[in-house]
């Protein structure tokens, strides 16, 4: 034990030396030499079985094994010393690691940050290599399906308030999928890879998915056909009840557990008033390995061109699910913290909003500014400063050009370019009459408003701004 403790101390000191050289930006040769010494010491130390499984080392090790087939989209990096790192793939795994490191067992949070994909955005519209995600998660031990229903309520509330068009939220459960694969005859070792194939059904035909399962993944054709009988079904709570009576699926305990939870979930969604937005879809698989229960994905619907046609999904804008085992992977004692959450693709939402505004021939707003304080004549800077200060004090988002005597035309053009909807124009005549000329940038209509009524008039006109900012 004493010998091992001495070696551990040498490893610690050598590790500090390597980190110090990296911070000093020493030469690659010098760093590599010290890293080699560190690795040699670690080899002498040998593995510590009590720690090996749970040690949190580099971001690369944090990410490995959590994303299934999506792992090929992780950006791998290597620093000067040869240490393997990765860019953040999502916000869920870091959140789970944070819970484990800080021994948190109950928290509700949201997080907006950049994530990265080694993707080919030129080949697929709406996909990016670097983009923002907005996540919302609930962690803690609660009664079944209550936090899950809240997450779906929040997802629907966000998408409805953004006014990006009709959408549908598909739901499924990993336990139903695993139970279905088991009774269909899929080997345990192929569950996750077959999941990945099934998840493509919203983009390609069943025949293409079947060919991939059989030709590329070695599944027997009759097994693929059994899977096809299930994964092409979708509906509401009636489908859940139908599958609860299915003679084959009812043989799987985990499938019955998943179906029971989904039935309860639909009850809560009805109480929340969003059941009409939810569809139980057996083809929804979600490629990430850490999901353990309910999974969901929101897709925008394309208006059908012909009578009697069903709306078509045109792309996922939000997704999530339950991941009860992820925190335990990072906890030294394997303690699990049940979690459920959702993730929204911010850039994808922005691109949809931009497209819809362009179709309506409306300009995209890039600022929250409600009104520009302008002047029609020279030598009115003091009056502009007084008025903008009054508006700021009243909570109005106002600004002015930082020039003593800007031309009125330049001020109006600035509003058009920035998407500022209103202009409060001060002139010598208006000052004498105690009014402000309020101009709509879009319609170019102008009205005289008494100075004491200006704040309320601006609030009335900008109560529901459509803004990307």
Automatic annotation (TrEMBL):
Domain spans labelled WHEP-TRS: 3-59
Pfam families in alphabetical order: HGTP_anticodon, tRNA-synt_His, WHEP-TRS
Reaction it catalyzes: tRNA(His) + L-histidine + ATP = L-histidyl-tRNA(His) + AMP + diphosphate + H(+)
GO molecular function: ATP binding; histidine-tRNA ligase activity; identical protein binding; RNA binding
Cellular compartment(s): Cytoplasm
Gene Ontology cellular-component annotations: cytosol; mitochondrion
Residue ranges that the Swiss-Prot or TrEMBL entry lists as coiled coil: 350-377
GO biological process, one term: histidyl-tRNA aminoacylation
EC number in record: 6.1.1.21
Keywords: Aminoacyl-tRNA synthetase, ATP-binding, Coiled coil, Cytoplasm, Ligase, Nucleotide-binding, Phosphoprotein, Protein biosynthesis
Function comment: Catalyzes the ATP-dependent ligation of histidine to the 3'-end of its cognate tRNA, via the formation of an aminoacyl-adenylate intermediate (His-AMP). Plays a role in axon guidance.
PANTHER family xref list: HISTIDINE--TRNA LIGASE, CYTOPLASMIC, HISTIDYL-TRNA SYNTHETASE
Subunit field text: Homodimer.
Membership in a protein family: Belongs to the class-II aminoacyl-tRNA synthetase family.
Protein name, per record: Histidine--tRNA ligase, cytoplasmic
Gene behind this protein: HARS1
């Amino acid at each position: 034990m004493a010998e091992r403790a001495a070696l551990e101390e040498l490893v610690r000191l050598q590790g500090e030396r390597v980190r110090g050289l990296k911070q000093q930006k020493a030469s690659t040769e010098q760093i590599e030499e010290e890293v080699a010494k560190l690795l040699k010491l670690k080899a002498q130390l040998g593995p510590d079985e009590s720690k090996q499984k749970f040690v949190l080392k580099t971001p690369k090790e944090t990410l490995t094994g959590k994303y299934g087939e999506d792992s090929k989209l992780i950006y791998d990096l290597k620093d000067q010393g040869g240490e393997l790192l990765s860019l953040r793939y999502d916000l869920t795994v870091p959140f789970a690691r944070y819970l484990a490191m800080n021994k948190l067992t109950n928290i509700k949070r949201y997080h907006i940050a950049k994530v990265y994909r080694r993707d080919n955005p030129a080949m697929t519209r709406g996909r990016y290599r670097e983009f923002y995600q907005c996540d919302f998660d609930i962690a803690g031990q609660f009664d079944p399906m209550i936090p899950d229903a809240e997450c779906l309520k929040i997802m629907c509330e966000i998408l409805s308030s953004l006014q990006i068009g009709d959408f549908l939220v598909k739901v499924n459960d990993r336990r139903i999928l695993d139970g279905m694969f088991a009774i269909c005859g899929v080997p345990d070792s192929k569950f996750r890879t077959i999941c990945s194939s099934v998840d493509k059904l919203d983009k390609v035909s069943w025949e293409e998915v079947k060919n991939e399962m059989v030709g590329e993944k070695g599944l027997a054709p009759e097994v693929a056909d059994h899977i096809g009988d299930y994964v092409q079904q979708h509906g509401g709570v009636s489908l859940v009840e139908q599958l609860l009576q299915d003679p084959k699926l009812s043989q799987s305990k985990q499938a019955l557990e998943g179906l029971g939870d989904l039935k309860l979930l639909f009850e809560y969604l009805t109480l929340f008033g969003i059941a009409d937005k939810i569809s139980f879809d057996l083809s929804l698989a979600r490629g990430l390995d850490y999901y353990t229960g309910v999974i969901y994905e929101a897709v925008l619907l394309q208006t059908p061109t012909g009578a009697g046609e069903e709306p078509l999904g045109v792309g996922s804008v939000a997704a999530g699910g339950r991941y009860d085992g992820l925190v335990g992977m990072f906890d030294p004692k394997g303690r699990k913290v049940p979690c459920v959450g959702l993730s929204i693709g911010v850039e994808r939402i922005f691109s949809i909003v931009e497209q819809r505004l362009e179709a309506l021939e409306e300009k995209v707003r890039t600022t929250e500014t409600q009104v520009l304080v302008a002047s029609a004549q020279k030598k009115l800077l003091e009056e502009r400063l007084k008025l903008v200060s009054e508006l700021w004090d009243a909570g109005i988002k106002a600004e002015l050009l930082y020039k003593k005597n800007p031309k009125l035309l330049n001020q109006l053009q600035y509003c058009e370019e920035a998407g500022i909807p209103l202009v409060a124009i001060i002139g010598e005549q208006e000052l004498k009459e105690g009014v402000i000329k309020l101009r709509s940038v879009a319609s170019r209509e102008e009205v005289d408003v008494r100075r004491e009524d200006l704040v309320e008039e601006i609030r009335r006109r900008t109560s529901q701004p459509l803004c990307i900012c």
